[in-house]
Amino acid sequence: MLGAVLATAPTLALAHGPEAKAVKARLAPLSATLDGINAQVQTTVAPQLVVANDSPRTLEIFDQEGRVFLRINEQGVLADLASPAWYRSQTAARGVPIPEGASQDAEPRWALVHKEPNWGWFDPRLRTDEIEVPHDMEHAGKPAAISQWSVPVRLDGEESTLAGEFRYEPLPPGSFQSRLTSDPEPVEGVSVSLAPGTVPAVHIHNQSGKPVVVADAEGRAHLRIGPGGSFMNANQEKGEPQWVKVAGGSRYTWTEPRATYGDLRPPEKVSQAGRRAQVATWSLPVTVDGEPVAVKGVVDWLPGEQVAAGGGHH
Length: 314
What we know:
The protein is mainly beta. The chain contains four helices and 21 strands.
């Protein structure tokens, strides 16, 4: 129901992904006023709110200063392209450049960015990278709540919130790590890199002057990087893509579930061996100027001791 969401970023802000900290953003049960709304918090390179609206009503999402920047209804997802929050919510990075004409006081410019009534975004109110775990809590080694978070919303004029807790959850005895095995520069002027995380982030920098297109799991064109910025295909059906510009520049980063392992734990024989092991391979359908290029990698399991030795624990 709730798929991965593309995210723009001029640089990758998180060095180690969500395994680097044991602070997690967790969602509380939704209020009865939000009947027909489904929501999740997914941790990729950072906590990400993912919402689906199965009701005939319009759900509006407010930014930190009380301005609506997203609307989700039967028509799909509408974004206020004049709102700085729209651009900041597309990435886990800090210091995102805001395009000319977008400001907190600018007149709204609503545009359809997705034809289905579901969306995900990196809401800064869910950031965990600056939350410290109290020493006594960490020493006890048991899950516990640290503080609260909330995101104001409105459903057909009735105000409510998406809310939850920041929790300390002791790190597991190991982690999965995706890595790139194909050429990091598959074509001259095009570079590919990977940022680790529960769901890793793929970063493409296109200076070739040719369009780089990434297909979705169904083989449909989903993302185009350059020339002239980065674009998302708003047409979820067959036929010609309907490109919506979501970022300027020649760089784009998105969280990629196809580069993950499909289970929460490794195979038993891998776990019992107690050493690093490859557990999966992955590949992405990418073309440069219509010609397919190899973007592929593997997923390794790292036991807890090896994660700690590599800096994965604090």
